[in-house]
Design brief:
Elements (H helix, E strand, L loop, with lengths): L1 E11 L2 H7 L5 E12 L4 E5 L6 H8 L7 E6 L2 E2 L4 H7 E5 L10 H11 L4 H15 L14 H13 L5 E5 L7 H16 L3 E5 L3 H7 L2 E6 L2 E7 H7 L5 H17 L1
Parallel strand pairs: 3-8, 3-9, 6-7, 7-8
Antiparallel strand pairs: 1-2, 1-4, 4-5, 9-10
Amino acid sequence: MIQVQNVTKQYVLSKKQQKELQTNDTSIFAVNNVSFTCTPGRVFSILGPNGAGKTTLLRMIATILKPSSGNILVSGASVLDNAQLVRSKIGFLTGSTNLYDRLTPGEIVKYFADLHGMDKEKFMNRKELLFDQLNIHEFSKKRISQLSTGMKQKVSIARSMIHDPSVVIFDEPTSGLDVITAHNIIEMIRQCKQEGKTIIFSTHIMSEVDLLCDDLAIISRGNLIFNDTMENFRSQSSNQSLTEAFIQIVKENSTRIVA
């Protein structure tokens, strides 16, 4: 379970940034007093325009960034008081692989398994399972520099999932991928759901939201403007498409935020 409790992330602006943003404000809120709960066995999707604060929020959950105020509990552990324990519970997958070019997929996955203190037998069993599911065996001995974007993303999935985390964060994981690789990621998310993991899924692709989402949060300008089940979002949207409903709620609430 993930519990986000009145979380804010505030950045101080330099003189140059104030000039670029044409503002006299000395700080900006990337995330502003956001609260929600993600429960195991459900896919919690986060939507928002570019710059809305989605990635900042996900990085705070993953302990990459520290909240300016508020707290986040991951399976009962606080990101403020026990960040190392939180990291051990999380698998974080983004659209950017950032893999070391000179290593092979097997070497990279082994490195991350060692970071999580996995014993040899558990690592080998888990690695075989993931490499089978993602069809990595056929290129497992090639260096990362020789792999396609889709192959690298498969390795990134294995790296993120090797320690069998109870909480999985997918931050636009299918961005720029071919249909087959994107399908592999969708299937991985479904499997995580079946295994009862807590899942956060952020994407710009509305068809993926429609396919996977159980609960939905929408963020605009750092503010949480919708937080409910996907079923209720659909029922409130009347005859609109999901894209039309999303655009409408963002426009309506952006006006209120500015006001």
